[in-house]
Protein: Deoxynucleoside kinase
Organism: Alcanivorax quisquiliarum
Amino acid sequence: MPTERLQALRDSGELPRFVAVEGPIGVGKTTLARRLAATFNYETLLEQAEANPFLERFYRDPRRYALQTELFFLFQRTEQLRDLKQNSLFEPVRVSDFLIDKNALFAEVTLDEDEFQLYQNVHQHLIIDAPQPDLVIYLQAPTSVLLQRIGKRGLAHERAISAEYLDQLNSAYARFFHFYDQAPLLIVNAADIDFASNDDDYQQLLSYLLDIRRGRHYFNPRPLAG
């Protein structure tokens, strides 16, 4: 990606000022968020899953620890956004690896009916006005690919994640983004993309997303000639 083009978009105000990268566990959203932030010279706003003391217990015993896990994440993300607002940083120039709008997506998958009602009540009292992204990138991949990537990165709190749970998340994400229209949306087939070590994959995606201003778009990486 030529530096001149990025600078021209920045100078003209056409570079997206707030990009949110989303997708199920293991799909590569944090890796992509970090690369985009480095390219744009933006701050990052990242999930802090390792700070959730209930998460590893949830993966071992979902029924017992679901409510504690989801409430902790809700409090954590609300506090992140509140801190940004208090620090006068709410004119966003950043890349995030989560979209606050999807918080209830996980809760709906993991909680029973009564717990979900309680979660929604808490959510309504806690949630603050969140900035809408200029661009949302939704990464998709089959459950088998997610399991391989989760196993490869070897995080302790993810060892007990089941294929059944990932299937449920994939379905929930697909339903959520089928109706999402709050910001320009780029849906990426990430099954064969390696943003960490394949620069060609990243440059293709970067070139594509820089032209997005509105609507819904789809990206499949092109095989390189030769």
